[in-house]
Design brief:
Elements (H helix, E strand, L loop, with lengths): L4 E6 L3 H13 L3 E7 L2 H10 L6 E4 L10 H9 L4 E6 L4 H9 L4 E4 L4 H19 L6 H9 L20 H12 L8 H8 L3 H13 L3 E6 L7 E6 L1
Parallel strand pairs: 1-2, 1-3, 3-4, 4-5
Antiparallel strand pairs: 6-7
Helix pairs in contact: 5-7, 8-9
Length: about 230
Amino acid sequence: MSEKFQVLIIEDDFRIADIHHQFVEKMGDFIVLEKVKTGNEALTYLQNTESMPDLILLDIYIPDVEGLDLLWELRTTFHHIDIMIVTAANDVEKVEESLRAGVFDYIIKPVDVARFEETLKRYKQQRQWIASKEVMEQRDIDFIRRGDALAPSTDNSNHNLPKGIDPLTLNEITSLLKNNEVQGVTAVELSKLIGTSRSTARRYLEYLVSVEKIRTTLKYGSVGRPERKYVLK
């Protein structure tokens, strides 16, 4: 999955919408298609666009709709689009109803940037991982629901992973290597793909080498020393 995830922002405060826009596109793998201020604008856009979003960032307090009516309208009519609530509403009833509607996450304003970025990263990892599967076993479903269990292909559990190796990041790297478009990577290339430092990327790659999930070859350039390239076995 090499294309960027497309996002629609539904937020009546243009200043907050602009901030969220910056947060989203800072991630690199996401692009904002449009920002709309009302429920009517949102539905009109979705009914007429040729480029449907993958993810909607939705504020509950929208001036022309009542409560969570827009959420249920989106969920019913555009059920293939994922929804993430970003709102100041923190009463239990709205949170519970949103979770029943199957939102990917519920973030309360003012938004913590690190928390926001963690959610988008988790969304990307989950979408890429699902795209790599053909059938689902119970452990696969547990991974999707909790995000705290490794995919079976890694043959590890959280408890067996060494310090500094995060299961979600490890799974993202494994999925990238399985992707037909990625026929092996260097640490530098991987760091750009997953948005980490080169040393972090190398740490994960060397871990996968140590558990015999990938192998190394040498990549020769026109000048300089050859680089280590990591290829899935």
